[in-house]
Amino acid sequence: MRHFELKELEGLSKIYRLNLINSVTGYKSAHLIGSISPSGDENLAVFSSIIHLGSNPALIGFILRPKTVPRNSHANMKSTGVFTLNAISSNQIEDAHHTSAKYPDNISEFDQTNLEPEIKEGWNAPYVKGAQIQIGCSYVNEYLIKENDTVLVVGKIEHLFIEEKLLGKDGWIQLDKGDIVSINGLDGYAIPTLIKRFEYARPKK
Questions:
Q1: With a cut of 70, which residues of the chain have pLDDT below it?
Q2: Would you state the pLDDT for residue 106?
Q3: Alpha carbons 123 and 61: distance in angstroms, whole number
Q4: Which of 37, 97, 110, 183 has the maximal Cβ count within 10 Å?
């Protein structure tokens, strides 16, 4: 088994260390965040840091990297107060990954890919047309993580749109029925397959 100590990690090349540390924690959820600027410019960006914060109220969070360069998604949601999360299916991964390219804020990633915006009445942020899970979120708050200057952004789930075939009778969503992908590292896309679902665990008697 290969052993990396802190001193060795700190001496690795930037790309090797980036790949190593980003992939070592395993598969992460893959979402496209849709937003719009006050002037009407749509933005779409792939994120692999979406986390569940609570179900009542229904809150999600995601990590924003240091703001050393413009972060259009962040600026848009702070200005308009809303954004969307859109699950990525296997047939969308090439276009989804391309949204990580750095375009000026007046260039929409929708125009640079085959992904299409879907506007739903009463919500001022674009969803991704064809996404099997679409989540409308309002911007709630953010917290600076001073150890590395990243930001934890908190959003509240206001709307959920879920394809019927994914939704179980008890509300559980089976992602592999829709070929919903996850991300390993920054650029590896995979489809996890359900092995077994267990009942709620209680202490043994």
A1: 68-70
A2: 87
A3: 20
A4: 183
